Input
Amino acid sequence: MKTIWKETLSLSHEMQQLHIPTTAVVQHVAGQNGVVTLWFETDTGHAIAHSRRFRVIGTGWQVPEDGTYLGTAHLSGYVWHVYEVMS
Output
């Protein structure tokens, strides 16, 4: 069965890891309650969780070379961009 889940990321330039299913597909990124939030769809019947790496960067910052853009969140007058990093 497919379901939607969410996880949050800190406003930090450091690499962040989330333990989420391998089948997770990020569907939306936005600010919620002062934090960057990812909503992802996954098949809970076949979900094997593993660590996936993410970076939150501000506008004008260097984009991770090995990153895949996932979305943008607006928080407290700032704009933050989320990338999943593969290496």
